[in-house]
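User: Hi! I'm working on a homework problem where we have to compare a predicted structure to a textbook description. Could you give me the structure for the chain below?
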Amino acid sequence: MAKKSRLGSFGESELGDLITDTRQFIPKGIQLSNVQNISVNNLKSNSLNSKYFKLESEDYFKRLTEDIEKRGVIVPLIAKKDGTLLSGHNRLRIAKEINLEFVPVQYVLNNLTEEKEREFVIKDNLLRRHLTQDERYKLYRAFYPDFDEHIL
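Assistant: Happy to help. Predicted structure tokens:
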């Protein structure tokens, strides 16, 4: 039985098993800057996000707003050098709505090809979002053009 601590009934090793380190999903070879506090006005949405992912529900945004109001933006957004987001569109939206001036950001230090940028956006969201099987297949098809030939 795990000893009780400030973590509740989970010991530190059990808690580690429940938390996924999302850095493993960053495409190989991508280098990130240190975390910086950046003005929300210096960041912009990436059209790939809205192309591949539907807008979340009102309930989702309500819960995210409550969390950010309480704890701030904990997970840094990831952006290209020009401020175009690769990860964190919903967090940025809420930060702007509640008038946060700055958010934590890491910049991709590499120059990304269109393919690598698309891969980054899809992989980041693919594992974070609650997607239907059809939505997942659509993303796999966008990332792997011959998906149907090999899988279905």
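For your comparison, note the following. Confidence is low (pLDDT under 50) at residues 1-22. The longest helix spans residues 114-128. Good luck with the assignment!
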